[in-house]
Design brief:
single chain, mainly alpha, globular, Antitox_Xre, Putative toxin-antitoxin system antitoxin component (TIGR02293 family), Xre/MbcA/ParS-like_toxin-bd
Length: 174
């Protein structure tokens, strides 16, 4: 393993731990009882992404910037990518960062979670953020010769990207 790979693994582990704590804290502050959800233990980031009811609560509550910042740091996407996905300016993203308790609107929260899901599936398939980033930015024949990242702005495109990642994971190449 290279020194760069070791450093990236350490950084990702640190961010994962912070994501786990932030998700747990965020969910404790959410109105889970309105959805008849009872948490008996701390919820990890991975638990959160695999529980559709918790995702619904997060979308409706609105992702706080503190959680978004960690998700942003964990994903392979740049600030410009995020601004494009969320259909807001980079200036707005920077302004939200300075606003103490900014919560994203549900439409933006849903997109943030979708990009977190793409990252999770991509890491499961490729095993590293660098390999995922390369795949996302390389034209893909199975996706109409578009770069997968170009399809992530809308939900249908995200589903195509997730489907292609799943096919790759199972060795079904077009």
């Amino acid at each position: 393993m290279s020194q760069y790979t070791d450093m990236a693994t350490t950084i990702n582990s640190t961010i994962e731990g912070r994501l786990d704590r932030e998700i747990s804290s965020f969910l404790k502050q959410s109105r889970l009882e309105d959805y008849h959800i009872e948490l008996n233990k701390a919820v990890t980031y991975e638990d959160f992404l695999s529980n559709k009811m918790l995702i619904i609560v997060a979308i409706r509550t609105g992702i706080p910037y503190s959680l978004f910042g960690l998700i942003q740091a964990y994903t392979p996407f740049t600030e410009n990518d995020w601004a494009n996905f969320l259909d807001i300016s980079t200036k707005s993203l920077q302004r939200y960062k300075t606003t103490a308790e900014h919560h994203f609107k549900p439409i933006h929260s849903e997109k943030i979670i979708e990009m977190a899901e793409v990252t999770k599936v991509g890491l499961d398939v490729f095993g590293s953020m660098e390999k995922l980033r390369l795949w996302l930015t390389t034209p893909n024949y199975a996706l109409g010769s578009l770069k997968p990242i170009e399809l992530l702005k809308d939900s249908y495109g995200k589903e195509l990207v997730i489907s292609e990642l799943t096919r790759i994971n199972y060795g079904i190449l077009v």
